[in-house]
Amino acid sequence: MDNYNEITVTADQQYSPQQITLDDSLFNKCQRLAHMMASGVCTVPKHLQGNVGDCFAIIGQSLRWGMDPYAVAQKTHLVNGTLGYEAQLVIAVINNRAPIVDRIKFEYFGDWSKVKAKDDKSTDVGVICRATFKGDDEPTELSLTMAQVGTVRNSPLWAADPRQQLAYLAAKRFSRLHCPDVILGVYTPDELADRNNEAPRNVTPKAANAGASALLDRVKPKQATAAAPVIEYYDISELLSTIEQVTDSKQIGPIGKEIGEMLNNPAINIKDDDVDELRQALADQKQSIILADEYNNIMKHIKACESLDDVERMKGLITDKEQDFDAGDIKMLNDTLEIVAEDIGAQG
């Protein structure tokens, strides 16, 4: 899980909420940066483009964490009108700002080969999240099994890479339990979706005079029941990021199935253009994986050449692939083949 550390952190540069709101100079600088950030197209996600207020909030949160606002912005998503932060960002914050002497570590247990579906409920398969707090001799641990995961598993990673997704969830629960002051008020997209899926509860106290209340209740029109929460516009940026991280063609199918299920889910509204973008990204990633496998296979055969005839055959194969591979890859193949040919020639 090396990708936990992609968030840039600036050491020893943190600001309190009081500094940001009460220091006129700092406030004005943040405001100017918010306008600049909101004008971005490729550097900020769609839900922040043209949105100065939310960009300002992102900048304030970034200053409190000592992070690059643009890096933090790329790890946010809009869920049911609420801003959510990716689990990767939460882990980076805990690793760098929580009072721990080392980084969060993960230990898996159980037979993961039997986890075949995103809704798996195994009680003996899970992960242990641990970190040692300053002043403690032993690490603090939190154990989480697949059975303890909530009903909301919207991320395609629950199907494509459940180990990583469970580790993400364990880290979030660990941070909320043991260092809530570091991430107070910050929620991830799946947590927000889970919260919005909770059925509303009637907290109105019962009237003492049931007779009059019962009569009024009979003559009043019945209130419509609350409808299922609807996401006005589904933010596809997290799903696009997931697709970009796929390195195994076997993961393409489950993600494509997840996209199909999203389209059939009445609680998810997704734009036609975004659907086309997702499908194109999935197709492009699949083609990229196929080409990467072909490239590695050709390179393996080049290094296995035993005669100049083998070299000539590989030259023809490389020529055939010039339309598929980029110029850098073709050059690398040709350079390697030339070295192999020289070695064969030197051997006589």
From TrEMBL:
Domain of life assignment: Bacteria
Record InterPro entries: RecT_fam
GO molecular function ontology, one term from the record: DNA binding
GO biological process, one term: DNA metabolic process
A Pfam short name: RecT
Protein name stated in the entry: RecT family protein
Source species of the chain: Psychrobacter arcticus (strain DSM 17307 / VKM B-2377 / 273-4)
High-level lineage: Bacteria, Pseudomonadati, Pseudomonadota, Gammaproteobacteria, Moraxellales
